[in-house]
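Me: I'm a chemist; would you kindly supply a protein sequence with its structure tokens?

Assistant:
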Amino acid sequence: MEIVVVGINYKNTPLQIREKVAFLKSDLERAYGQLDNNHYAREIVILSTCNRSEITAVVTDIKKGVQALKSFYYRFFGLEEGTLEEYFFVNVSDEAVKHVFYLAAGLESLVLGEDQILGQVRDAHGFAHERGSTGAILNKLYREAVTTAKRIKRETAISEHSLSISSIAVKFIEQIFEDLSHKKVLVIGVGKMSRIAIENLMAKGVEEIYVTNRTKGHAIDLSKRYPEVGVIDFHDRYKMIPQIDIIITSTSAPHYVLKREEFEKYYAKDNRVCIVDIAVPRDVDPEINSLKGVSLYELDALKKVSLENMESRMEAAKVAVEIIIEECIKFENWYHCLPVFPAIEGLKTFGESVLTEELESLTKRLEKASDKDKELIEIVMRSLVKKIIKKPILNLKRAGEDQKGELYARVASELFGINDYSCKRR
């Protein structure tokens, strides 16, 4: 059994491709349902964000398992086999472990050290765990990765003045307009990304912010949190265009929420409108960008601003890497010891059974001994058994860490009559 990660991310994959393989929340149960029938994957976690779509799996065969996961992408998203090959990244074994730790800590993010990814990693594992798609290995990996990410945030400055995609979007808009205080903004969507954008806009002095959402009740709830924000009926979103300078959109819709033909009906060509689409799949029809006076920016355009804000976090990232290396070694030692754990438990059970048998026999022969003497005898014998099996247990653990666990567990099984000596072998 080995851990692998297969997927695509923002590093070498354009948005136009990323949006084609984004798992919507409504897709997840169906996706896991198909992966349940995968012959090579025993445990699965799917993670899909605006910058990545990836699957972590415990597979019985690395080559066949990786190919099966790639083929799943093509089938599930209805893509021609081979069209994603230049974009796929694959991490195996220790590199896969390190990737998950880096991911949770924000070291794999477009915005170095961003906070949002930690919650996304935790939620992705939580969903998989609740439906029974994970087991001992991925449960341990994701829990340790999340715990380590929290430690990094406590012990380093990597998340100070934390930036997210939403806050980067506002910084990007500020570079375009310079002064935002007199601009009117329409925010489409009411998720976390939208809330962060609204807070950043208000911090920049924006006084007129309107929000709209397909479910109006959610928009009203948001306006209660931010009394300065006005609520617009979703069906009236196009009617706001003549009054608006900036549009920020971040929904989970599988289709465009701003289409050119409708947008063009309401857009006054002498206006200047800046649109920032931070959704995957995209919310805004790219054809809108061809309209005079309209500037449409998508996720990949935000990379420059992200890089400019990265330097201050690089030193903290160095410390974070050291912490991750330390925790990865601990996890890998545990993982490589999986074959010997049953053997160790078997040794303990064997020692306990011998002790019980000999104590019963000795007690019968020492009927006249006092209870205090019998108690002392039991303490000494228990101590003796522990000392006898201590060295073999340590050697089994060392063998596991040296990736020789299967061999040593098999030998221990034969010597002591332990039947099930490996939980990694299937």
